Amino acid sequence: EQFPTVRGLDTYSNNLPTQRSSLVGRERDVDRVIGLVKQHRIVTLTGVGGVGKTRLAVQSAADLLSRFA
């Protein structure tokens, strides 16, 4: 009996930038963004410059890759 191949981030064809580090302490925010994306076609992240909006969006998108592959 064989196990299925493990699918990593690079398994799905995508144009997301490669992250050099892990996202620390934002799990709750990522979960919230993912929940909103599942409910709405468009989700907007707002905040002052430098708070991590882009990093949060990229991580959320990476976590959702299999849903849109």
Distance between the termini: 27 Å
Shape: globular
The helix count comes to 3
Number of domains: 1
Write down the oligomeric state: single chain
- Rg from alpha-carbon coordinates: 14 Å
Q: Approximately how much helix is present in the residues? A: 40-55%
Can you write the helix and strand succession as a string? HHH
Sheet of most strands? none
Low-confidence stretches: none
Total strands: the figure is 0
Counting helices, strands and paired strands, the structural category is mainly alpha
* Mean pLDDT level: 88
Give the strand content. under 5%
Please specify the SSE layout and strand pairing.
Layout: H1 27-39, H2 53-63, H3 65-68
Helix pairs in contact: 1-2
Provide a descriptive summary of the structure in words:
Helix content is 41%, strand content 0%. It has 69 residues and is mainly α. Helix 1 (27-39) crosses helix 2. The longest helix is centred in the middle third of the chain and has 13 residues, at 27-39. The two termini are 27 Å apart.
Keywords:
69 residues; 0% strand; mainly alpha; 3 helices
Quick summary of this structure?
The protein has three helices and no strands.
